Amino acid sequence: MIRVLLADDDPLVRAGLRMMLGAAEGITVIAEASDGTEVPALVDLHRPDLILMDIRMPIMDGIEATRILRARADAPEIIMLTTLATDGYVLRALQAGASGFLLKHTLPQDLVAALRRAAVGEPVFSPGALRQLVDSVAVRPSGDQAARHSSEGLDQPAGGGRDAHGAQELLDRLGAREREVSLAVAEGKTNAQIAGELYLSIPTVKAHVSHILTKLGLNNRVQIALLVYRAGLI
């Protein structure tokens, strides 16, 4: 049974998510939070496997709550919920340690499938939504906005490469097999799918992903995907 904690300040959104997930086999909603300040205590009390977390909440947003939780050794997986993938908060949430993000209008069957993937450690994100996110940070801001974005890290979503050339230079550090794995990660494929396509074992795929993250100075698989998109390889 996958135990889910919902965190969203809109009670209607929480009710809708609870109804969708309640109809799915093997998933149960064990607690709800209306603000990020409530989440750590609920995690301590209920020990969820994963959290569906709204990015924007009034007192403590999902980014800060994610940062607090991911500092723990036993942190649950965290999937961010957002209305628009172009929201600059998404990138900051991924940098804070979120495992992925979903749009709030995700179809019920896709939402359930995403949670099942997240529960076993796979990142979840819509390729279309990821494309929107990459496009939104690919345009280099100017003036005060550029300084603000640079200080927040918004113009450097993966390894510090701000343009296609910089992203390609980073990817050139990888071996041929690691590049193949990176492309598959960017396409949203699971470790099992990558293993089947590249004729590798799942532990070997996991090892490749770990080496890629270390070589490129990244924190998670979603950042690998951002880098591949930035390089124009997909």
Describe the structure.
This protein is α/β, with parallel strands linked by helices and 234 residues long. It has two domains: 127 residues, 3-Layer(aba) Sandwich (Rossmann fold); 71 residues, Arc Repressor Mutant, subunit A. It is 53% helix and 13% strand. A six-stranded parallel beta sheet has the order 2-1-3-4-5-6, with helices on both faces. Helix 5 links the parallel strand 5 and strand 6. The longest helix has 15 residues. About 10% of the residues have low confidence.
Question: Could you write a compact summary of the structure shown?
Answer:
With 234 residues, the chain is an alpha/beta fold. It contains twelve helices and six strands. The protein is 53% helix and 13% strand.
Q: Give the amount of beta strand, in percent.
A: 5-15%
Strand order of the largest sheet: 2-1-3-4-5-6
Query: What gap, in angstroms, lies between the N and C termini?
Result: 35 Å
Overall morphology: globular
> What is the CATH architecture assignment of the largest domain?
3-Layer(aba) Sandwich
| Overall SS class | alpha/beta
CATH class of the largest domain: Alpha Beta
Keywords:
234 residues; alpha/beta; Arc Repressor Mutant, subunit A
Topology:
Blueprint: E1 2-7, H1 11-22, E2 27-33, H2 39-46, E3 50-54, H3 62-70, E4 77-82, H4 88-96, E5 100-103, H5 108-119, E6 124-125, H6 127-138, H7 143-152, H8 164-171, H9 176-186, H10 191-198, H11 202-216, H12 221-230
Parallel strand pairs: 1-2, 1-3, 3-4, 4-5, 5-6
Helix pairs in contact: 3-4, 6-12, 9-11, 9-12, 10-11
